[in-house]
């Protein structure tokens, strides 16, 4: 793949393909990738980072097209957050055949034709959320799980981790509903949350939300019915400007956070190492943490919560 | 105004969307579980609020469809305008300016639609399909591919908070007291007021009749001296303005400008308009019908959400209802004959 | 001679000077000149495709001329669109109906000139104006709130006429206004025209019924191939002269008739009734004869043919085709049995306007142009060429869209389809509607020929002379019932009309 | 067959989609960066493969649109059939059975569309809008709200692997050697073959002519003895079958049955058909045109994807091109006059 025209002059060209582009999570991944690029350039290894998400988010077919188009274009390597753990198998294998190594980030893929897999332990994240919720409720009460979207491997693992934790360690807690899907956008998630709450609003004590859009929407819906401020304990996943506000105000009882900057950074770094001929670990964990209103002022949590995005992505546009 | 006679074809047509709604509510009332959960003031308040965006969009779309056109760019324009609202708030404009400029932005997109449709004489389906991509692209560009959260710049350290009109815009869709029917959010009142105004405009102004004439037979309208092109441009621009307003509501609902919101909204809006009695070949339709159509769809979604049916059931049911609501037309001849027999036996 | 106070009597009201117009390769107008005085009724006569409608569309602002000039009351007149023309006092009744089917009668009459203040329609005023316009043409009983689509074609035509009268036009153009009117309504219309002309309105009257032109017009102009070939005072011209100028040759006999022998009965209708109309029709049609059906608008002739052809449902009665009972049927089966139907409404129902002449001609019997299971374009073109030559169709080629042809030529294509299908029973609903005299003669000849070949024809028409000239037997329909079908010789014109208006029946019962 | 004369209106109409494609390729060739990256055999192979689903869908849609209808359920039916394929493979059916039953499933959905449209006499837009929801719902139900991955049941410990036809289905869209033009995946050949067959069917069979006649004027078609209802049902059913086949291809592409795939695909397919010269009011259109339309859209997406443009640029450009490609019609009179002047000067 390194015979392609545009990589000769300015070093390696690497494409980073997120699942989508509008969630703030992906912005942090982007920042991490740029961070890696800056460090590599400083150390004399020029790298061109191409940031390209699928046109229609949450559309597997679109992401496959993006991967294919970059195989055709002939980049040196790919960092990919697969929308689906199976659908992206063939494109990744095709890339491998064409001599383009791929590092998988964020969400797993059911093949071994990749260079490395850099991500959070999502099941662990789900379990951490479950444990926290269980403790907050004192081991009894009713909880809800609003799932994210069909087929997303990372969130499915979190949802499973959460359910496993509740089932194994908190037998006194009843899961009221765990088969509703929020859908891919905040708007869909908000409507789904409202409708779920108009049924269970009176009996629910705790809610687990497996990603950012569901967390924000569910919190808003809970506030709408007048149960904000901790009357219903909400454990969310990932951070955004809004969910941090909610954490501060006490509407959200805890957020399980990943380290997306690290994920983007390690994704690119690992790929470059691999391209340089070095052996890289097949699985790299970027860690999870649970943030509550108590520990959110601690320095390392702060770093997690407010990644210096501007530093890497520039301000504004 | 002359009101259609009871049992006449016009009467049945005007009443059809209400009948559809009535049937849906009746079915819900028959279900014991739903009866208590669905028929609550607070729940209706929520449904009304969920209806606002589709209803406002449906008012614009009704005009377009009655005039024989279609606007597939509605969803994208709503997303675009939600981003425009966010950006305007961010820049510290007041409520009036935010509303005006957002509505203008929507109107501009509509103007482009109408302009291309009339000057190049192209099918509205294609032009607005193109505009669907264009508006979506522009909204992503404007939003820098992210959601735009204007509040975020309103930290405590800033003396002149640029997002000072945020709270007023948020108010449109905010529940003040979530457990009662009143007070309804401002957005609901706004939508109701607009519906009344638009119903009268479409029914009793020269412009409104021209909309029907153009949709019924464009050549005739032209030969009768109606400036078809000017009117069409006005129709699309006005519809765009409504989508712009719906964009403000969309922002208010999410409290953020989201360039990827409202995908497929155009089909929901079109469905509402058609359930409300409009004909896609033009010349027929009404604002009250369309608004009721939007409300009926929201009721359905809410009801099946409450009943904890899986999502797929909900999709199937809404699909079936769309077909049934419009297909009811075909049952009318029977009802009509029934009425006729009664009146003749008197 | 009525005087118009507003204009100088020395100036003609309207002057058309060397106007030319072409549509792509078709030269529709090739330097036409014409003058109409105030209060004059001017007949515009010409074959199908001569350019009459095009000239009038130029006048009404629907088309822009390529060359030439128009003058109205001495002022240059360049209508940019129909609205402009109407404002200048030029109103037009178009040949093809132009109504908004979803709007009510009242709304259609005042479409484009609603009485309004600041954009708000004044409903009362609109109603008043609409009523007045309808009264003027003697149609005060027409329901004002009914949507146009619920009216018959004749009623629709009347609405169009009413619309043209709104707003006191200076020039009123009527492009074949009577093509679907009955005699009574036609008489009414003539009254209107007279009154208008007395008021100083200039009327341009286009019709293929030359007698009508003779009755209402004071002067005439003849168009041929987009050029004016003659003009003069109507009273001084003989019909033969006019026709010769129009067609460019002499027509020896308009209604040819060769002797033919009556064959077996091929179509028998007994007590046929539709859902609404007809209510009772009995008819036996023999091979080799032409049976005419006369009646007023709404008498149910169209419905009778539609029901027989399987387009509408039959409520009762039976239909026997070629001695085989086949009451309930579909157009497909009827066509397979050799029954063909020509619709009175070629634009809405009779033709595929955006398809080629060839497709339209061969559609019912594609089998004839199919080779090895595939429709052969060359066979289609050859077959169509044959029929086009036979019917004297004026078109660029068999591949031209039918929609681009003139009305009369379109009608010929619709007729040609029955010939290609080789139908043995032809149900013809107003087959000569909108056709010029030359082509009419041709169609009569063709019908005569077909009957001579042993085919059976039902000929529905509202134009009595042609029925009397062509048919062997005539039946009259009135309110859904068909009278006794008698040989032409047994009818007098008077009797037919009396029967049609429903006044002959009591006498018959008494006798 | 007689070919339309050079410069004649028919000729320009037939050639239009090709001209559009040519313009797009020319623009790409002018760009130095794209020239080397885009014009590579391996890249064209990818574009062709990416075209397959839309192209197969467009063949069915062309028939529907030419007959004066529209099918908004195409995307949902594709998703449904991708799930059906997955389930069938899971149950251990052979390749032939999988293909047959999936295509039948699609045909059944189309049959339902056509049946309702003709018996209840409803607008296709509404019926297929309803079917869009219904098919999507059914596919989610069938898939149990998950993606269906038939391979997964094919563990080493199972003696009779139930997913034995998986590999053959996957083969349809598999790149064997990603860096060369040949061999093309089977799916591309299949689509090309079908295009030829369908072009002949639509152009030169009695059924094809009937499709045009119905789209041109339904009343006339009925009057001419065409069994309009039967033909319409056949058209929608056949179109459904094509969407079913596209579903197989979709499965092959994702190697999984995905109930949420192909959202909005119907609009892409319709755009391809219309770019290919079809008229949404019926009576005009062609298979080669539609296939070229699909290919052109894929080229555009690929080109702007390769060129590192941000997503929003891509969406805007595709929107603009849809409008331009169809609007080119209006430039034709000029071209036509040009040709005429040349030929007359000879
Ligand atoms: N819009 C058009 N496009 C192309 N050709 C046209 C158009 N309108 C009229 N023509 C052609 O112009 C010529 C004159 O047509 P026009 O309708 O004026 O005839 P006409 O005298 O009114 O005939 P008829 O008695 O049949 O109504 C015809 O050859 C017709 O085919
Ligand atoms: N089923 C139908 N669908 C559409 N139009 C119809 C139908 N039946 C009748 N018509 C139209 O209604 C009009 C009135 O038809 P009807 O049979 O009542 O009168 P008629 O005796 O044929 O009168 P005329 O031919 O003089 O108008 C006709 O123009 C016909 O085209
Ligand atoms: Mg004419
Ligand atoms: Mg009739």
Can you describe what's shown?
The complex is a heterotetramer, with 1 copy of chain A (317 residues), 2 copies of chain B (346 residues) and 1 copy of chain C (511 residues). By secondary structure, chain A is of the alpha/beta class. Helices cover 44% and strands 18% of the residues of chain A. In chain A, strand 1, helix 1 and strand 2 form a beta-alpha-beta unit. Chain A is elongated. With 346 residues, chain B is an all-alpha fold. Chain B has one domain: ABC transporter involved in vitamin B12 uptake, BtuC. Chain B is globular, with a radius of gyration of 21 Å. About 2% of the residues of chain B have low confidence. With 511 residues, chain C is an alpha/beta fold. Chain C folds into 3 domains: 234 residues, P-loop containing nucleotide triphosphate hydrolases (Rossmann fold); 143 residues, Rossmann fold, CATH 3.40.50; 79 residues, no CATH class. Chain C is 34% helix and 25% strand. In chain C, strands 15, 18, 21, 22, 23, 24 and 25 form a 7-stranded mixed beta sheet that branches. Chain C has a 6-stranded mixed beta sheet with strand order 6-9-10-3-11-12, with helices on both faces. In chain C, strands 2-1-4-5 form a 4-stranded antiparallel beta sheet, covered by helices on one side. In chain C, helix 4 crosses helix 5 and helix 13 packs across helix 14. The N and C termini of chain C lie far apart (50 Å). Chains in contact: A-B, A-D, B-C, B-D, C-D. Chains B and D meet through helix 6, helix 12 and helix 14 of B and helix 6, helix 12 and helix 14 of D. The structure holds adenosine-5'-triphosphate (2 copies) and magnesium ion (2 copies). The site of one adenosine-5'-triphosphate has 18 residues of chain C, from helix 5 and helix 9.
